[in-house]
Amino acid sequence: MLKRLFNLFSVVTLVLSVFTIAACSDSKPYEKVAVTYMEAVFQADTDTVLDTIYIKDKRSEKEQRKKAEEKLNAFLPEVAKDMEAKAGGVKSVEVLKSELNEAQDTAKVTVQINYKKKFNNATNEKVTLTVVKVEEDWKVIPNL
Known about the structure:
The chain contains four helices and four strands. By secondary structure, the protein is α+β, with helices and mostly antiparallel strands. The relative contact order is 0.16. Keywords: Signal.
């Protein structure tokens, strides 16, 4: 009897895992990059922020990346520290909605930032990001 119950529990767990993986893999690449970007901002992860942002001029991409890196290194740690002090940090970032344009090369992605405690009289904040397709990758157009 106990063995049957254990087997039933194992099957249920396996089925739930498959559904969870399927649900997670359903997210769209432009939504994923928006969430990754926001999480990186709040974690002061300069490399990931740089990997997820759109740099317009390919001819001077290295130079622009270096300038962006300097700016990000100057203020991202402060943003992360400020969020930790005022909101207890960020609990999660989730996509609320996304709209892909007709050409399917630009999207507006609205994310919700969930704080660990109240910040500015709220426990969350909504941010809309513009995401653009560059070759095969999606990049966030930053509002720096």
